[in-house]
Give the backbone structure.
Amino acid sequence: MSGKDDLRRLAEQRARGGPQREVALDRDQLVAELRVHQIELEMQNDELRRTQIELQTAHDTKPFAQHELGVAVRVALGQTASALPAEDPAHGRRALVVDDDPDVAETMGDALEQAGFPATIARTGAEAIRIAGEVRPVLVFCDVALGKGLSGYDVARALRADPRLRDATLIAVTGLPADQCAAAATAAGFDHVLTKPVDLDRLEELARHPRSAYAGR
């Protein structure tokens, strides 16, 4: 007999004033059965919750499918690239050539360009100081005898006084024997001395390896 039939029977017996013992027994049995059903439902709910948690955990920890991984990597790389400023391909390789002889300046500039160092040319000391402040070269090849106005030594001292050019490599270019101007060049702030006529192979070596032992000879 179902629970609804028991309740209906109980209601009818109460209305007729029928025997109460049998009704009481039926009611107690009904309550017990309802409690059993309640416990069974709670167990089923617990099992459903455990199953849901297991499924969610499996979903969260499953490895990427190949196409999903590819999409994630492309998205990450795209976001990273868009967050970074565009890099100047010449950054860290700019050179400045200072010489009042146009032929010498152009020849040195062309050699540096071929070695991968974009070069700017200045004809006077004042122009060299101005350009250096603008382009911030990492290499400066400067003739020590610039004719009128500032000398190459003056240019070197001015560049060394500029904090933005503290790490630049300065190379003195001279028509004199190196030993005759080495002391003055070092005192002014030059790192190396390159004699004329300029050996373009050595110029390139100085550009590529300004701190090497060869460059210091």
